Amino acid sequence: MAEHRSMQRAALLDAARTLLSQGGTEALTFPALAERTGLARSSVYEYFRSRAAVVEELCEADFPVWAAEVSAAMAAADGPEAKVEAYVRSQLELVGDRRHRAVVAISASELDAGAREKIRAAHGGLVAMIVDALEGLGHTQPRLAAMLLQGVVDAAVRRIELGAEEPSTVAEAAVGMALRGIGS
């Protein structure tokens, strides 16, 4: 029985990733989860109390994967400037990957305060990865610079999701802004 519940939960999370990647947070509904998994809608509530709970669990599962990929890209880069570029590019490359869609969906307004705090803490870990590289570039306030840099990345993610520009154009602009400021 426990194995069956675990498999059902995994199927629901996988369905949630698909729904998020295809239609954003609006597409993530309990009826849609039920339809994708073959469960009754009421059965979905046995696994999750709300949409926010689904997003929170996806973030708990997927954020460490996202962070590990960013960390690996930075570790492969040589020097602080290359690490900053890897930090930006690796996050933007992950935008379309459905495994990471929940991480992108963390701005969903229906998340409760506890979920938001967990996600903020995880996000803080991601931002902490870049502090040393920014210090190596001579920033006198590397933590502040890291937070602002993540703001650039977050804005670039939103632009990519809008589809108004090519992802490569957005990535180049974001990397340019990260490395050379607004004048580039």
Radius of gyration: 18 Å
H-E order: HHHHHHHHHH
Secondary-structure-derived class: mainly alpha
Strand percentage, roughly? under 5%
What is the number of helical segments per DSSP (H or I, 4+ residues)?
Answer: 10
Let me know the number of strands.
0
* End-to-end gap: 59 Å
Which regions contain 5 or more consecutive residues with pLDDT less than 50?
Answer: none
Helical proportion?
over 70%
Largest sheet: none
Mean pLDDT: 87
Judging from the principal axes of the Cα atoms, what is the shape? elongated
What are the main properties of this structure?
10 helices; elongated; 184 residues; mainly alpha
Q: What does this molecule look like?
A:
The longest helix has 26 residues. The model has no long low-confidence stretch (mean pLDDT 87). α4 runs antiparallel to α5. The chain is elongated and about 55 Å long. It is mainly α.
Write a brief structural summary:
The chain is mostly helical.
Question: Helix and strand layout, with pairings?
Answer:
Layout: H1 2-23, H2 30-37, H3 41-47, H4 51-76, H5 80-93, H6 101-104, H7 113-128, H8 131-136, H9 142-162, H10 167-180
Helix pairs in contact: 1-2, 2-3, 4-5, 4-7, 5-10, 9-10
